[in-house]
Design goal:
heterodimer; A: 485 residues; OB fold (Dihydrolipoamide Acetyltransferase, E2P); Dihydrolipoamide Transferase; Chloramphenicol Acetyltransferase; 3 domains; 7-stranded mixed beta sheet; 11 helices; 23 strands; B: 384 residues; alpha/beta; Rossmann fold; 5-stranded parallel beta sheet; two-stranded antiparallel sheet; 7 strands; globular
């Protein structure tokens, strides 16, 4: 309970009382300041509205519990403050109109139950004498009360920023072709310094930003030349995979110390950032891939597909894209700075690739528009490029969702970590012949385990489960792809 | 023909509303209720001034309670702003021996029954289970669960029948029950079941619905496709719709319905049309679901102003009385303010005192366990 109370009436000492934000609802923890109804120097009476706040539930006026002169305003309109925060400070010392029951001795300040009971017990009796104070008698009757201020339905539109030049992050102005250019180049628009008319981002701005970000290389190699990675044959002749000795590597008989740089550092930072900012949840499902594999066999046998390698991964990617179509909310990202969730209308499908120099995740741009054949070709091309060490930065930027195929290592299951900036990653285990129950009979089937990790900040368990269930359903019964695709 | 009807008009919307005081205070004669009011002495100028004061006082207490909640002193408050006439009228229409079963929004009824406002505030502060003696004040504790008022009231009324205090013709002992609930609670199944029981046993109960137009955020028109007053007629329970912002109409209707029930004529139903001027509770924001124009429309029908205008027209009230009422109301509000702000947290062990009237082994065990639990913290305080 609030210990602060009206100070002794007429006390010469300054008595500053802070009016705090109390929980205006049931169990609310914070509120946003909508309006401040008093100014420093204003005289306030008990219960005078001083601040209007909006909570998760409602917009409410908060009143002061003491009378006096406002000496400080501790919050500003737009502040979101936790319960308990001081709102204003009131000097109660010079209060010329003390509360009727105010007394110097706190113990006598509060009316006893009996006093109030007298009021109630004698409903028709007149009080002994008129109080004769100057306090406004405005507590009762709509007639004498000024019309209550209409509360705003919702928070008003954010006020125009006073520091003119800065464009709010959610109001970036750029023409569609410029947006497309930025996306193609992997440039985040909010990183771009806008120089166009009225703060718009121009084509030149995007290109300039890209130059800055990539140190002049417009389509640079993902693997810098000096990239030190622990090579095969640890401890021996420490060389890069490009057969260049790298600097900073020291070895003794039992250990080799490799500076954490470049790829390894980038991977580590990405994994740490992802694992410790996005709360990961992983769900698993074991599925019967037999029918999908049958289709793959048929495609491989057909002449039209002769020059394309149809892998289970392509079919799984297609199943994931179909499932995303049914659950588009999974294809989003958490924008902490802007306090927004960004739902992508496109899918840039990341394919985690183990390369001699480490893990990289290039993505297929606009995979949602691709046919199965285009997916198969695209995945093949990404893999070839990655293995050759020619993956460009652009290929790794702006992914929206990823598939990681640890099944190639003959592993059944795992808990993948999200590619930073994405909200879901599908893990694919090895496809193995296993006993499976079909219509009451145990039969050998091609079985794989799928896992799906997702960012629990924006994807609820039900949604994540729904996505994995839909992926599973398409792979178990590919004809669903016709229905849902 | 009585204003209490047993049939539904061909056009449901034709249900009349009994009104004795128009919004501008104009008094209309009403033979049936005028006789009731005259016979009971409930409408003398003195009484009317008293009702005016009551309404002013309880509104001040209500507004103060809302402020106290905003100042962190109450966990919640359910305002009855605008329903003063419906509540003060119903409270005073009942006789001392009648038993009233309220919801949690009957502050005016409580006031009229002699329940001090701070007792209500203590309940909403979370330090009291109810705070008054239901037997002494013939008023049940506030019940948060809506709809439960109806079966409780009918059960009590059937008990009165078995006690033999119904229909004996002795006005000092014959008793009845007033079940209070709102339009929202009327949608609860137990209200319908209570109608069945009350009609089957011809129990001495009056169902009194303050239709304040809003079941939290749902307008009455959604759940009540026909006027609420017409519902009970399907059970053979006669009913009337009155202007709930007209204290005289409420007094007349509730008094005659209770008299009838007390005399052994079975249950009655009264629908009082009023308006919840405030939000549902302090946790609610009415501006999110109802138009400001509607609030303004009802503000013009204010029950307090209406009675004052009537008394002014009759020359039965002067500026001095009005001012005095306002001052008393302000004093009451300030007393509540300082009383509640100055409250100490009660001994938490008190919560084990009243669940059962007699010693109870499980409660005793829980009390002992709790005492042991809090003793840890006392040790910590001593060490500190």
């Amino acid at each position: 309970m609030n210990a602060a109370s009206a100070g002794p009436a007429g006390s010469p000492a300054s008595t500053i009382v802070t009016v705090p934000l109390n929980d205006p609802g049931e169990g609310l923890t914070e509120a946003e300041i909508l309006d401040i109804k008093v100014a420093v120097g204003d005289r306030v009476e008990i219960n005078a509205p001083v601040v209007e706040v909006e909570t998760a539930k409602s917009a409410v006026e908060l009143s002061t519990h003491v009378a006096g002169t406002v000496v400080a305003i501790l919050v500003a309109v737009g502040d979101e403050v936790p319960v308990g925060t001081g709102l204003i400070q009131v000097d109660t010392s010079g209060d010329p109109a003390p509360a009727p029951t105010g007394a110097a001795d706190g113990s006598e300040t509060d009316p006893s139950a009996e006093e109030v009971a007298e009021q109630v017990a004698a409903p028709a009796e007149a009080p002994a004498a008129a109080a004769g104070t100057e306090e406004p008698k405005n507590l009762v009757g709509y007639g004498s009360r000024s019309a209550p201020a209409r509360r705003r339905r919702r928070r008003a539109a954010p006020a125009q920023s006073e520091d003119g030049g800065q464009v709010p992050i959610d109001r970036i102005l750029a023409k569609p072709p410029v947006r497309k250019l930025a996306r193609d180049l992997g440039v985040a628009l909010h990183d771009v310094l806008a120089t166009g008319p009225e703060g718009t981002v121009t084509r030149q701005d995007v290109l300039a930003a890209q130059q800055r970000a990539f140190g002049g290389e417009s389509d640079g190699d993902f693997f810098p030349e000096e990239s030190p990675q622990a090579p095969e044959g640890l401890g021996g002749a420490m060389k890069t995979t490009r057969d260049q000795a790298f600097s900073g590597v020291t070895s003794d008989e039992r250990t080799t110390r490799v500076p954490i740089r470049s790829m390894r550092k980038r991977t580590a930072e990405a994994m740490v950032a992802s694992a410790f900012t996005a709360p990961h949840v992983t769900v698993f499902n074991e599925i019967d891939m037999t029918r999908s594999l049958q289709i793959i066999s048929q495609l491989r046998a057909s002449r039209e597909w002769a020059d394309v390698k149809v892998s289970p991964l392509a079919v799984i990617a297609k199943a994931l894209l179909v499932a995303i179509r049914r659950n588009p909310e999974v294809n989003g990202s958490w924008d902490e700075a802007a306090q927004e969730i960004v739902y992508k209308h496109y899918v840039n499908l990341g394919i985690a690739a183990a390369t001699p120099r480490g893990l990289i995740v290039p993505n297929l741009k606009d995979a949602h528009l691709m046919t199965l054949r285009e997916l198969a070709e695209g995945i093949g091309e990404l893999a070839r490029t990655a293995r050759a060490g020619r993956t460009s930065l652009r290929d790794t930027r702006d992914g929206t969702i990823t598939v990681t195929n640890y099944g190639v290592f003959d592993i059944d299951s795992g808990t993948p970590i999200l590619n930073p900036g994405e909200s879901a990653i599908l893990g694919v285990g090895a496809i193995k012949e296993k006993p499976w129950v079909v219509e009451g009979q145990v039969v050998p089937r091609q079985v794989a385990s799928l896992s799906l990790s997702f960012d629990h900040r924006l994807i609820d368990g039900a949604l994540g489960a729904e996505l994995l269930r839909d992926v599973s359903a398409v792979l178990e019964d590919p004809s669903l792809g016709l229905v849902w695709g | 023909m009585s204003v209490f009807r047993s049939t539904i008009p061909d056009v449901a919307a034709d249900e009349p509303m009994v009104q004795l005081l128009a919004a501008d205070g104009t008094r209309s004669p009403h033979p049936e209720f005028d006789a009731v009011l005259a016979g009971s002495g409930l409408a003398t100028p003195e009484r009317l001034r008293g009702y005016y004061r009551d309404m002013v006082m309880i509104r001040a207490a209500d507004l103060e309670a809302t402020s106290l909640q905003r100042q962190g002193q109450l966990g919640l408050w359910a305002s009855a702003l605008g329903q003063e006439a419906a509540q003060i009228g119903a409270g005073h229409a009942s006789r001392e021996q009648d038993y009233l079963v309220p919801t949690y929004r009957e502050h005016g009824v409580a006031w009229a029954r002699g329940i001090e406002p701070w007792r209500l505030l203590e309940l909403f502060r979370g330090i009291s289970h109810g705070g008054w003696d239901p037997n002494a004040l013939r008023t049940h504790p506030y019940m948060i669960v809506l709809g439960s008022q109806a079966p409780h009231a009918v059960g009590y009324a059937m008990g009165l029948q078995r006690d033999g205090v119904v229909g004996t013709g002795d006005p000092t002992t014959d008793a009845s029950v007033l079940a209070l609930f709102g339009d929202g609670a009327s949608s609860e199944g137990e209200v319908a079941e209570s109608f069945t029981f009350a009609a089957s046993f011809q129990a001495p109960v009056v169902f009194y619905t303050q239709n304040n137009q809003w079941a939290i955020s749902v307008p009455t028109s959604v759940q009540s496709r026909v006027p609420l007053a017409q519902r009970s007629r399907g059970w053979g329970i006669p009913s009337v719709r009155v202007d709930g912002n007209d204290v005289l109409a409420v007094l007349g209707a509730v008094r005659s319905a209770l008299d009838s029930a007390r005399a052994g004529n079975g249950p009655m139903f009264v629908e009082a049309l009023t308006y919840r001027m405030a939000a549902h509770t302090t946790s609610d924001d009415a501006s999110r679901y109802r138009p400001a124009a509607e609030e303004e429309e009802w503000a013009a029908k204010d029950p307090i102003l209406r009675l004052r205008r009537h008394l002014e027209q009759q020359g039965e009230i002067d500026e001095q009385y009005v001012t005095r009422c306002d001052e008393e109301a302000h004093d009451l509000a300030m007393q509540l303010h300082h009383h509640i702000h100055g409250m100490e947290d009660p001994d938490p062990v008190r919560m084990f005192d009243h669940p059962y009237a007699e010693p109870h082994p499980i409660v005793d065990a829980e009390r002992a366990e709790y005492l042991e639990y809090i003793s840890q913290f006392e040790d910590e305080e001593e060490r500190a």
